[in-house]
Specification:
The complex is a heterodimer of chains A (725) and B (172). With 725 residues, chain A is α+β, with helices and mostly antiparallel strands. Helix content of chain A is 45%, strand content 26%. In chain A, the strands form six sheets. Chain A has a six-stranded mixed sheet with strand order 10-14-15-13-12-11. Classes of the chains: A alpha+beta (725), B alpha+beta (172).
Chain lengths: 725, 172
């Protein structure tokens, strides 16, 4: 055994030759296929012919190749399995639960040997590596004596189940490093690289002054874009690869927990970047385990409440507006809100009064708080709660988000939303202490500018802590230059400061920077281990100017500055409450028609963009804007575009201010753009009585001035809200 | 670059003993690194400093589509800030696993020396020096201290703990 450990500690790559490595990768894939087929076979024993054929083929291939490579132990085990499968294929045996369990153990056994070969180069001949028990079990199953089989199952079960868990990490390692690519895609890549080389040669020969230089630069640009797209495509993997692992896991878990669970998939072909697929693997596995363990009730309980005894787990993947959504829905007990609240109060996460006033949606968010997930919570709260904060943190780390919906007695739905790719992210570049930093847009909520004369007033102090009052809500201020120990600019040079309001891992805070540079699509480059250890930077990027900028890890920065997620969550809850129940709302006030104040509810406006007029395109008489891969229809009520066109004809360079409007961040609604003359203010306002004459508009008093408020956005968004609450 | 005298050249005609070193300077001292371990000499680059990084990290610099971490050699020796003629060398360990940059004041040229002429570190050397230096060659112009790139790797330096903080007398 000591020898084996020494082998495992220092796996020598050279002892496994290319041929063997290829064999291992192929066999692992075969076993993955076998695993899928086996679990499917159990659910549908009726049409076993094709499935058994498939399983037989994968084991047969392993047996055939091992004989050739000289792995006798593997061959012997595979042979025993093949023999059993042969009987099954000829119809001599019936598909029983024992048989499936036996075959699954055969698979674990084969996998363990493969892992050993990968790590040490040999299949192991020591006493611990004896397969006779397993082979005997398979033989016993072949005789079709279920009683004998069970006896053998117990003995072998204990021994074999330990091996694969210890080896699990190594198995993952190989599949992480290799990737199957369509030859077509690879050829296209090669062509593009050829094109790139040709263009470079031409550029080198002609020099910068040449007349065709702009044309060459354009060609280089388009080739680069094509190449980037093709490489992205090659990195895309169907999420089905990830889903494939779940049937077996659900089956085993259901058996140990005494549940009856069926798992259904849709959208397996949805593509996701390989690194992202790896990143959501753990959170999703965790969530599936939770769903089986705590979501779905015991069969007896289900029948009592009028549901079929078999619970159903639905895994769905689909595209939605530039991101991939992975949805896990169960038809289990749902999460009992009262118990969540009781637990949260008990743990001191919220006060009793706060708990009193919470809506269901807000209460559900409590599950994601770090303090909530403890062992005690699992047993006393029937819902989920084990490490949900970890699930959320992992998903947010790759720029995604997590949503949870639940109805008592009906079930729970967990939604993981992840970006299509990791490598390129939109970011805002800021400057602080003479250095550039990139903030991922996904964490950016809004930007506040505080001019120098207002600085004293804007920053309020409570002890040593500094706060900013943002729409009557206190926001902790973090000075980036002080946090990082950079030189602070002197009083003379300062013009005031910018504050980026950021939100990550449940923390919301204002990050003070000296200056804002342009928003850019940045290419994320990893940092070396020593710099990763600092823990504040998630990577670096080369800016358009050729300078490097460090990418700030928003969550880690919050933690370093001592911003706690708990308090912030509660504050947010209070604000949300104010929005839904009071008539006081936050409004973005702007001018669309000349001399008229118009407003939109603030939560509807995602972003304010300034776009060159030339980027506005027309189709069928309607103005359109291409925005982040979406086509936005523009509303131009004040005929601003026509006026600007006139200005452009006079030779002026003009840009249009467009409000990008979405549906309360829910994404269910199509985004639209609203063309405005200028943005005036953000402020709270009192809604007046609804004006019967205009359906779409409502009057409000904002800072004692009459303002028209667009209502159709919030009306449309409202049903979504109700559905959730 | 100093051309070796004839008998010195004869002495190292036996190829097994010949080592070519790339000479470089930090402060008034000269150092040498085996040319086989040097991937590229980048020359003067704008380094992006990394806040909160250990003192021996010079910063990061873009290099062939990667972000290269650099080690500030002057900081390792406990010298003050760089003069503006700093120069970046790209070093790589044998199996190519860790690639990093070394920031020195200037890079000289390639000199060929006899491996047998290497003098061991003196026993009076302080602990930092013992870690960094790998003996010295006696040159006409003075001693050229040999460096082992393996020991200059940022991850090794971080483990060593000797270089976490700046030397006494300078700001922490």
């Amino acid at each position: 055994v000591r020898e084996a450990n020494a082998y495992l500690d220092a796996p020598d790559k050279r002892c496994v030759d290319d041929l063997t490595r290829e064999f291992i990768a192929e066999s692992q894939e075969g076993l993955d296929r076998m695993e899928r087929c086996l679990t499917e076979l159990e659910t549908r024993p009726g049409d076993s012919e094709q499935l058994v054929g498939e399983i037989f083929r994968s084991v047969h291939t392993i047996k055939g190749t091992t004989g050739f490579l000289g792995f006798e132990r593997l061959e012997k085990l595979a042979h025993a399995g093949e023999h059993l499968l042969g009987s099954l294929r000829e119809g001599k045996l019936a598909v029983t639960s024992e048989l499936i369990s036996g075959l699954l153990r055969l698979m674990d056994g084969l996998r363990a040997i493969l892992t050993l070969i990968e790590a040490t180069g040999s299949e192991g001949t020591r006493s611990g590596d004896d397969d006779t028990a397993l082979i005997a079990e398979l033989a016993a199953l072949n005789v079709a004596g279920p009683v004998v089989a069970v006896a053998a199952t117990v003995a072998v079960g204990l021994q074999t189940t330990v091996v694969p868990t210890a080896m699990g990490a190594a198995v993952a390692a190989l599949s992480d490093k290799t990737l199957r690519i369509d030859v077509e895609v690879l050829n296209r890549m090669m062509n593009l690289v050829g094109e790139l080389v040709l263009t470079r040669n031409q550029m080198l020969q002609s020099g910068v002054e040449a007349t065709n230089f702009p044309e060459l630069a354009r060609r280089l640009d388009s080739v680069t874009a094509d190449l980037r797209e093709t490489v992205m495509q090659a990195r895309m993997q169907p999420v089905g690869n990830l889903f494939g692992k779940f049937p077996r896991m659900v089956r085993d878990l259901a058996q140990t927990c005494g549940r009856e669970v069926r798992i259904e998939f849709s959208g397996q072909e949805t593509g996701l970047d390989k690194s992202l697929l790896e990143a959501i693997k753990d959170p999703l596995t965790h969530a599936v385990r939770n769903a089986v363990d705590h979501g779905i009730e015991a069969p007896a309980v289900r029948v009592m409440s009028g549901k079929p005894s078999e619970g159903c787990l639905r895994l769905r993947a689909f595209h939605q507006g530039g991101s991939v959504v992975i949805e896990l829905a169960d038809d289990g007990a749902g999460i009992a809100i009262e118990r969540v609240l009781a637990k949260a109060v008990e743990r001191g996460l919220v006060t009793a009064e706060q708990a009193e006033g919470m809506t269901e949606r807000e209460a559900l968010q409590l599950i994601f708080l770090p303090g909530f997930s403890t062992a005690a919570a699992v047993t006393t709260v029937s819902g989920r709660g084990v490490g949900m904060d970890v699930v959320r943190a992992n998903v947010e780390k790759v720029g995604g988000s997590v949503e949870l919906e639940s109805k008592v007695g009906v079930g729970t739905t967990l939604r993981l939303r992840v970006p299509l790719t990791l490598a390129i992210v939109p970011a805002l570049v800021v400057r602080s202490g003479g250095q550039s930093f990139a903030l991922p847009q996904s964490a950016l909520v809004e930007l506040v500018y505080v001019p120098k004369r207002d600085e004293e007033k804007a920053v309020e102090r409570m002890g040593a802590a500094e706060l900013y009052r943002l729409r009557e809500r206190l926001l902790p201020i973090v000075w980036l230059d002080r946090l990082l120990g950079l030189e602070t600019l002197n009083g003379e040079d300062r013009h005031g400061f910018y504050m980026a309001v950021l939100e990550a891992e449940g923390c919301r805070y204002g990050l003070v920077v000296d200056d804002l540079l342009a928003p850019e699509e940045i290419v994320v480059k990893p940092l070396s281990a020593v710099l990763k250890e600092i823990g504040l930077f998630s990577g670096a990027t080369v800016l358009g100017s050729g300078m490097l900028a460090l990418i700030l890890d928003i969550g880690a920065t919050a933690a370093r500055a001592g911003v706690k997620p708990v308090e912030e969550e509660i504050k947010e809850a209070e604000v949300l409450e104010g929005n839904t129940e009071g008539s006081e709302v936050s409004l973005l006030v702007f001018e669309a028609r000349a001399r008229e104040r118009t407003a939109l509810p603030l939560d509807v406006v995602e972003r304010i963009e300034s776009v060159p007029l030339t980027q506005i395109e027309y189709a069928g008489g309607r103005p359109l804007l291409q925005y982040r891969g979406e086509l936005l229809t523009l509303r131009d009520e004040g005929r601003v575009l026509a006026e600007l066109e006139a200005a452009q004809d006079r030779g002026e360079e003009v840009s249009v201010t467009v409000l990008i409007c979405g549906g309360s961040g829910k994404g269910e609604m199509q985004r639209t753009g609203m063309v405005v003359r200028r943005v005036l203010d953000v402020s709270g306002g009192m809604l007046l009585e609804k004006d019967a004459a205009s359906d779409e508009m409502e009057l409000a008093l904002v800072k004692d001035k009459l303002t028209m408020v667009h209502r159709e956005f919030s009306v449309k968004a409202a049903p979504v809200w109700k559905e959730v609450a | 670059v100093k051309i070796l005298e004839r008998d010195a050249v004869n002495e190292i005609l036996n190829e097994d003993d010949a080592v070519s070193l790339c000479s470089m300077f930090a402060g008034s001292e000269s150092f040498g690194i085996d040319t086989r371990k040097i991937r590229e000499v980048l020359g003067k680059r704008d380094l992006q400093r990394v806040p909160m990084a250990p003192a021996f990290i010079g910063g990061v610099v873009p290099y062939r589509g990667e972000v290269l971490t650099t080690v500030d050699f002057r900081a390792l020796l406990g010298m003050g800030e760089h003069t503006d003629t700093s120069c970046v060398l790209v070093l790589e360990d044998e199996d190519g696993e860790e690639r990093f940059g070394l920031v020195v004041d200037a890079v000289g040229g390639v000199v060929t020396v006899n491996r047998n002429m290497l003098e061991a570190n003196p026993c009076t050397l302080e602990s930092r020096g013992k870690w960094l230096f790998d003996g010295a060659y006696k040159m006409e112009t003075g001693l050229m201290v040999q460096l082992d790139p393996q020991k200059l790797r940022p991850s090794r330096l971080a483990e060593a703990g000797l270089f976490k903080h700046r030397l006494n007398g300078e700001q922490a």
